[in-house]
Amino acid sequence: MLIFLLLVVGCSDKNDQELIWFDTPDDAIQYGVQQEGITVSDILAREERDGESLIIYKIKLSEGTGLGVASLARENGKYAWYRADQPVLVQYSSTENTPVIKIVISTFTKKSFTIYLGSTKDPNKTINTDKGTVSPTINKNEGLLYYIE
After folding, report:
1. From CA 120, how far away is CA 91, in angstroms rounded?
2. Which of 22, 32, 64, 104 makes an SS bond possible with 93, Cβ 3.0 to 4.6 Å?
3. How far is residue 29's CA from residue 49's CA, in Å, rounded to a whole number?
4. Nearest 10 degrees: CA dihedral of 128, 129, 130, 132?
């Protein structure tokens, strides 16, 4: 029984991460950048949706380039970097693009967002989502794209 209890207590979910709280959103973002091993220039966007700040960033993965999504948790006038899911591979090292990937993320406040991530060489690319065909936001320099529903 004790061994079972230790196994349950010893395993933690990313959603149970201990957050480090800061006085400003910028300080929380700086901390998140450091934790992810990226630079501020790797942040492609900060989008405000339904009372949440979503941050889209690129990250170097062993297989190529990935895109990650984090949010800013807010509580008692403080802010924290919150990432519930791992970054997604969107471009292999060979510069081969992956298909557009649909993910559903959950913020600290348990709000869910459907996000499409990918890469393209076509600056006018459209993607098919659950709600129809849309024009995603495309980073012109690297061809990385995202769309938040």
Report:
1. 9
2. 64
3. 17
4. -60
DSSP lists the bridge partners of residue 138 as 145
Q: Rounded to the nearest 5 degrees, what angle is found at the Cα of 67, between the Cα atoms of 63 and 71?
A: 140
Of 84, 86, 87, 85, nearest to 108 by C-alpha is: 84
Where does 50-131 show beta strands of DSSP type E? 52-61, 64-75, 78-82, 88-92, 101-106, 112-119, 127-129
3-state secondary structure of 79: strand
Q: Give residue for tokens 């993607």.
A: 127
pTM: 0.84
Contact (Cβ atoms closer than 8 angstroms) between residue 108 and residue 18: no
Domain extents for the chain? Answer: 16-148
Q: How far apart are CA 9 and CA 137, in angstroms?
A: 41
Phi then psi for residue 134, to 5 deg, are -135, 165
Render pLDDT for 86-118 as a digit per residue (tens, 0 to 9): 999 998 887 667 789 999 999 999 999 999 999
